[in-house]
Design a protein that fits this description.
single chain; mainly beta; Umud Fragment, subunit A; 8-stranded antiparallel beta sheet
Length: 111
């Protein structure tokens, strides 16, 4: 499972399927996800997180630092809900080999 590998400190490249993140990520487009410090996540970041029992790669639409949680949405306006920092595993650092803006300083060291 990708989430377990990223939570364990690995940076992972994979091809997610689905259309909820188009045009930011197209189905089967390669993405690279690195371990993240959830306290550094901002609205607009794409994260790998568990929401309502499902691990998904989605957009952060809001952050609540006081309650240590982020709001997860798709790129089509649907809000999936809030999830705690402990359920945010990684941040998308590249899409199809191109660096995602705003990810510098948000990853945590491997291992």
């Amino acid at each position: 499972m990708v989430a377990e590998r990223v939570a364990g400190g690995a940076t992972v490249t994979f091809r997610p399927s689905g259309s909820s993140m188009v045009p930011l990520i197209r189905s089967r487009q390669p993405v690279t996800v690195a371990p993240v410090d959830p306290a550094k996540v901002e609205a607009g970041d794409i994260v790998l997180a568990r929401v309502a029992g499902t691990v998904c790669l989605h957009l952060v639409s809001s952050v609540d630092h006081a309650r240590k949680r982020v709001q997860i949405s798709n790129n089509r306006g649907h809000v999936n809900g809030w999830t705690g920092h402990g359920r945010v595993f990684g941040i998308c650092v590249t899409v199809d080999g191109a660096a995602r803006p705003g990810t510098t300083g948000k990853t945590r060291p491997s291992g």
